[in-house]
Structures are given as C-alpha cells and as structure tokens.
C-alpha cells in the first residue's frame, strides 16, 4: 500500500510516518523543507503547490496539516480544499488529522466540546477554524475522505500504549472517565484506518483505552 503523508515534518505527521513505515507500508513524506521523518521517499513541495500528478498512484493521502498562529488559522480550510480539489473524482482516500473541539456532546448533535463553559478560551479560535474546515469537508461528495478526531486531551509526548477505543461523532470517554490519547496511539489508529478502515465520508474519533 502506497501512502503520502502531507506535512510529514509536523509532530503528528512524523509519528504517522513512523508507524506506517514500521508496518511495511510504502511511505512518501511531503515536506516543505528537509525531511525529518523516516519515510523512504520524499516530495519536497509546499502543500499548496501539490498537483494531481504529484499524488497520482497513491492509495491514501494523509493530511497532517496543523496551524496555531491566529494569522494561519484560515489555512485549515484552504489547505484541505486544495487537497480535496486535486483528489476530486479519484479513488485515492484522504485521511485527515482532525480536532476534538467539534465532537458532539449531546445526542441531538447541537452542542460541541468547544461550546462548553470550561473549554479554554485560548483554544477557541483553533477549534472554530477546524470546525469550519470539517463543515466544508462534509460538503465534498467527490472525495473519499475520513476525518479522525483525537480525544480532548491530545498529548504530543504521551506514551504509546498500543490500545485505543474507536468512536464516532460524539465525544467518548474510556473506563476511567478520561478523554485522552497520545500522538503515538493516534498514529496507530490512523494507520489502522488506512489499512483496514472503510469510514468513507465519515468523521470518527479515538480515545485511549
């Protein structure tokens, strides 16, 4: 299986590459600058310069784009739109490293994590930008996308336990009542979805078991 990881030098991207390589997938890292991952192949290009030809022949493209600075937040929408446009009408799957703020906290799907009174104010602009990108993605019926939301507490330096619980649109908790997952366990879930998943045009979520 051939996969391309876009923004492979990011914290999530590097771990997805590592997990995929260790499982024997044929991995290409798409990076703007020198590759810091263990991918055997590299495309050195800005995400916005990628073309349909660059991504032809892959089975799955992973979008690991991340932006936190206020001026860069619109990139969540524009970068995802660009990838969708160049994958439109193809059989190439697009798996997106998503956010947790847009997960629903009621069965009516009218309230999200980011709507909670205890949601940190500092993260609201990011959650809003990622929710907007997801909303726009839901309108793309021409792309085989899967959006994977992490747990509320997404830990970059967290341990790799090798276990997780798969959820859907609603925030789920583990047996300890936690919404937590490490980047390493998230990478396991991402590669599982790449190799075995069939959640086409769906948002799924993961939490540490």
TrEMBL record:
Pfam family, one: NAD_binding_10
Residue ranges of every copy of the NAD(P)-binding domain listed in the record: 8-193
This protein's name: NAD(P)H-binding protein
């Amino acid at each position: 299986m051939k996969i391309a990881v876009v923004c492979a030098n990011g914290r999530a991207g590097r771990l997805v590459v590592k997990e995929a390589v260790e499982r024997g997938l044929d991995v290409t890292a798409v990076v703007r600058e020198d590759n810091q991952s263990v991918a055997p192949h590299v495309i050195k290009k800005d995400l916005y310069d990628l073309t349909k030809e660059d991504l032809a022949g892959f089975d799955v493209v992973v979008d690991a784009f991340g932006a936190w600075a206020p001026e860069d937040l619109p990139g969540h929408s524009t970068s995802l739109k660009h990838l969708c446009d160049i994958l439109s009408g193809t059989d190439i799957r697009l798996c997106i490293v998503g956010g947790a703020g847009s997960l629903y906290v009621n069965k009516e799907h009218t309230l999200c994590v980011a709507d909670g009174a205890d949601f940190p104010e500092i993260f609201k602009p990011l959650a809003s930008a990622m929710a907007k990108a997801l909303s726009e993605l839901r309108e793309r019926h021409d792309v085989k996308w899967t959006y994977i939301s992490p747990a509320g507490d997404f830990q970059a330096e967290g341990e790799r336990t090798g276990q997780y619980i798969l959820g859907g649109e609603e925030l789920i908790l583990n047996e300890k009542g936690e919404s937590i997952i490490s980047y390493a366990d998230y990478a396991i879930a991402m590669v599982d979805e790449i190799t075995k998943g069939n959640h086409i045009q769906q948002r799924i979520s993961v939490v540490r078991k």
